[in-house]
Amino acid sequence: MGGIPRQISDILRLVVLVALYPTVFQFTNIMITDDSSFTLIPPLLGGLAATLISATILFKKYRKHKEQEMVSD
After folding, report:
1. Model confidence pLDDT, tens digit, residues 10-21
2. Other CB atoms closer than 10 Å to residue 24's CB: what's the count?
3. 29-35: Cβ within 8 A, 24+ apart
4. Residues 62, 5: contact at Cβ < 8 Å?
5. Residue range(s) defining the domain that contains residue 51
6. Number of domains forming the structure of the chain
7. Of 12, 26, 52, 70, which is least surrounded by CB within 10 A?
8. pTM score, two decimals?
9. Closest by alpha carbon to 26, among 15, 14, 41?
């Protein structure tokens, strides 16, 4: 019973970690080289978009799996 939800949450965790990398990288560049703080906005928005899109796709997959499970019962 815990297989698919566990897989979805693990995939989402990986997506969030990957999406955080550009943001942290840009933040360190700002701290080191005194770049404009506005250069932090695109990685933040990109990471947020990637997380929301992947969450939407994964939850649709979960619902589809749940509906198929209910039909087979």
Report:
1. 888 999 999 999
2. 11
3. none
4. yes
5. 3-72
6. 1
7. 70
8. 0.73
9. 41
